[in-house]
Amino acid sequence: MGEKLQPLPIVDRVIRDLHGRVVNSADLGDFTLGKELQAHVAEFKANKPFHSPKVFEETMHSAVLRVLDFLEKRHHACLLGLGMHPFLKLDEARVWSHRDRQIYDALGRIFNLSQHGWLNIQSFQLNLSYANEGEAVRLYNALAEVLPYLAAIASSSPIYESKVGEFLDNRLYFYGVNQKEIPSITGDIIPEPVDSFEDYEKTTIRRYSEDLAKVNAPKCILNKEWLNSRGAVLRSERRALEIRIMDEQECVKSDVALSCFTRALLKGILRGTEQQTPHQVLVENLGAVIRNGLDAEVSHPKGATAREVCRYLLEVAEREASKEDRQFLWVVKKRIEEGSLSNLILRNVTKRMQKTSLEEATLGVYTALTKCLEDNKVYT
Questions:
Q1: Which of 47, 190, 282, 325 is the most exposed place for a label (fewest CB within 10 A)?
Q2: Where are the domains of the chain?
């Protein structure tokens, strides 16, 4: 981000300066800095799995500081997390135009890429490894049960194009409609239950690949598991489940907290004997959460609102969490009780608007959020 948090489409230049030439990613030791579809968005990815949340926090905060120092010295720029950029205008955004651009060209012939669901979204993607097919299927189906509530806690995208959006989680709303031409790619965001890898291949990957073939999509995007855009997907090449439902947070500590919560929660869900929630009920609950967050009315045996359900899920996670995991769960509890990052942003923007305009109030709050990223400090 540049002056007044202007989005800068310079990821290619940053990778070139770090690596010596423009490539898809630059290996920087403990982590890799990679490109995304949007030329102003970079991916931070660890080069090996973390064996403790503390190592996760230290490694990725160090990565943030290293890139921040480089950006400030070479490009007079900074970093901003969160689910959506508050000021980006679609006609100012650029798509990555180097290696692998044929994939984006192919997508652009089928979908309208000039929309927020393509050009203005960031998510915290958590990978959970699995040992075998049975464990993968159980994790995948268990994740569907909790995805609406992870979204409620992790929402951080209340403002875009300098205006307050209609939804509390605008990223997820736009994410859900950005591929409406081929709806089978995103499905209902909540993944449908499966009973095997073969079932997943048949009901998900093969289905959207056949739909893409009907519109003469090129081979570079056919039968690709990474194209699945549900809130959780199976990534067989890395033997992991990739969770995409959560908005990016304000600092590494908050992302680590969501990881600890999710991992412990799934242990409890898998250990329990609760009846599986019908898919359509989960879809309706997610829709309510996208609009109203923790205050959403939901259908669940443990509560009538998403906040009540999240309190129950936190109890499950606390019982299963390791000693190290518990050191981060206070962040999740704080979000459940005081509001998600979306709630906090709106609350503080509203306070500032007593003395200034919406745009200046937004700039003030989001500038503070860039400092949270640098200092690894949870926003209040």
A1: 47
A2: 3-375
Q: What is the pTM of this model?
A: 0.96
Q: Which residue has the tokens 């209340």?
A: 158
Collapsing DSSP states into helix, strand and coil, what is residue 228?
coil
Question: Would you state the structure tokens that stand for residue 273, as one six-digit string?
Answer: 């004997």
Instruction: Name residues whose C-beta falls within 8 Å of residue 42's C-beta, 6 or more positions apart in sequence.
Output: 11, 14, 33, 34, 35, 36, 67
Q: Domain 3-375: which topology?
A: Creatine Kinase; Chain A, domain 2 (3.30.590)
